[in-house]
Amino acid sequence: MKTSARPEIGACLDHLCIDSPEPQRLALFFQRIYDMHVSQLAGGLVLCEAPGRRVLIGAGVPNQVSFFGYALPDQAALERYRSGALARGAEAITSPSPLFGPDAFAVRDPDGRTVVFGVRAPEAPVAEALPGRLQHVVFRSTDLDTLVEFYSRQMGFLVSDRVQDEAGVLRACFLRTDVEHHSLALFRSPESRLDHFSFETTDWEHIRRWADDFSVKRMPIFWGVGRHGPGNDLFFMVKDPDDNLVEVSAEIEQCAADRSMGIWPHEQRTLNVWGNAIMRS
Ligand SMILES: [Fe+2]
Q1: Phi-psi region of 4 (alpha: psi -120 to 50; beta: other; left: phi over 0)
Q2: Using CA atoms, how far apart are residues 102 and 95, in angstroms rounded to an integer?
Q3: CA 11 to ligand 1 centroid distance, Å
Q4: I want to staple 129 with a disulfide (CB 3.0 to 4.6 A). Which of 50, 74, 195, 234 is the partner?
Q5: Residue 197 Cα, ligand 1 centroid: separation in angstroms?
Q6: Which CATH number fits domain 133-271: 3.10.180.10, 3.40.50.300, 3.10.450.50, 2.60.40.3880?
Q7: How remote is the CA of residue 270 from the centroid of ligand 1, in Å?
Q8: Which of 120, 126, 172, 183 is nearest to 145 (CA)?
Q9: 193 CA distance to ligand 1 centroid (A)?
Q10: How far is the CA of 93 from the centre of ligand 1 (A)?
Q11: How far is ligand 1, taken at its centre, from the CA of residue 76, in Å?
């Protein structure tokens, strides 16, 4: 059977490393709320993991991600991607991530965080939990245009949708690295920081099961349940102890290879077609 060529780089979000003034408190949150197993790694990082989701926590100021990792399917794909990125002007630095092998490489983005590319190591067996794989991460930036330029032109991420105001100013941008609508989104904001990351679950039924589970754990929903315009994903969000938003989502759009870029108006309905939204600018 003939397979059509895909325009994306063919990578998916694998993990992120969140800075926290109280790493152990944050790790206990992920253990209790997201049923993640917690272990201490060499170098002072804490690893929280459940099937499909891995989050590292390091000591630092809150609401920042020191690095985050995208996985390519194999060494050959990683090497092709590295060559392309270097040819487009990327400056490779040593990977800081303990979750990728020695062939991984990293690049510093214009907001000062490090994005790592590697090959996903086989997951160690961890206890079953409600399904929710780490699928996308979202940052707020005071210099959105520079950041979008970096990820799209230099790193080869593909813009799925732009959100623009009436003057044509870019307010948010959704970028994909594989068939899924976005694995990275960027919002204009007065502050550069982590906005949220998402655990994508299997379907609507599991959105309900997560929400019921949170209810038992007395973890109130902060925003949602709703459906995003760009990406069409069902979602709700809670807040972690450091005031980061953490999302559970489902049904994210699977993009056709020839999908053209969309443009959405800067209004609440774009971010939640069912109702109100958190406007970052
Ligand atoms: Fe999201």
Answers
A1: beta
A2: 8
A3: 18
A4: 50
A5: 6
A6: 3.10.180.10
A7: 13
A8: 172
A9: 15
A10: 28
A11: 30
Cα of 102 from ligand 1 centre, angstroms: 30
| Strands (DSSP E) found in the chain | 12-20, 37-40, 46-50, 53-59, 64-72, 93-94, 105-108, 114-119, 133-141, 158-164, 170-176, 184-188, 193-200, 223-227, 234-239, 245-250, 262-265
Task: Record the tokens describing residue 73, joined without a space.
Answer: 């399917």
Separation of CA 16 and ligand 1 centre (Å) = 15
pLDDT tens digits in sequence order for the chain, 281 residues long: 445 589 999 999 999 999 999 999 999 999 999 999 999 998 899 999 999 999 999 999 999 999 999 999 999 999 999 999 999 999 999 999 999 999 999 999 999 999 999 998 777 777 889 999 999 999 999 999 999 999 999 999 999 999 999 999 999 999 999 999 999 999 999 999 999 999 999 999 999 999 999 999 999 999 999 999 999 999 999 999 999 999 999 999 999 999 999 999 999 999 999 988 888 88
How many Å lie between the centroid of ligand 1 and the Cα of residue 281?
16
CA 62 – ligand 1 centroid, Å: 19
Distance (Å) from CA 148 to ligand 1 centroid: 17
CB burial string 17-42: b at 16+ within 10 A, e below: bbbbeebeebbebbeebbbbeeeeee
Tell me the CA end-to-end span of the chain in Å, nearest whole number.
47
The rounded Cα 180 to chain-centroid distance in angstroms is: 12
